[in-house]
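Minutes, project check-in

Agenda point 3 was the complex the collaborators sent over. CS summarized: two entities, 233 residues total, and the question is how they sit relative to each other. Sequences were read into the notes so everyone works from the same version.
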Amino acid sequence: AQSVTQLDSQVPVFEEAPVELRCNYSSSVSVYLFWYVQYPNQGLQLLLKYLSGSTLVKGINGFEAEFNKSQTSFHLRKPSVHISDTAEYFCAVSDGSGNTGKLIFGQGTTLQVKP
Amino acid sequence: GAVVSQHPSWVICKSGTSVKIECRSLDFQATTMFWYRQFPKQSLMLMATSNEGSKATYEQGVEKDKFLINHASLTLSTLTVTSAHPEDSSFYICSARKAGQGAGGELFFGEGSRLTVL
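CS then shared the predicted structure for the full assembly.
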């Protein structure tokens, strides 16, 4: 079974500063990794995903994440955040060898961007 | 884009009644849909995998007789909370993957349905 741990429940940061949201996973099989964002009163949107290949994945809105197999991590980064990035961010894992591809989510990290 | 619509977006019901929540993929077909439950300030908990034309697969600890899931077509899945009680109050979210895409395919999420049981 897979599981995901997001190490920070809240991350406050000033506008234009860099940010890293941490995510660690556990799995006995190969996995696909995802980051989703949830803005207030909206559904989840895909930021980026890692399936295979290059370990550095670039997503929308200037976000990127790096897959580190040895550390079982998939941290999300952005070099300069905006007020509009304030939202809930979820890391998720699915079984890369399974058929259903169900996603298991981490606890979520609230990114609070301050002016 | 791919749009998933949930209805109703919020519902209030009396204890003991049943409530049905619909999840529709508006512009694509989905052989698999997923139902999640989200508590305030917490993560999404997977309840079940809804498969078109067959029985849903429930996660451990989720009562299948309590949460009835029907996936009657490639664009519609329904979740019925039967004999609802206050502890069933929660935010229910559905998601769908485009037909033909495997486990790496993007999931598209509805905006959620907030259920309040009095």
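Noted in discussion: The radius of gyration of chain A is 14 Å.
Follow-up: revisit at the next meeting once the mutant set is ready.
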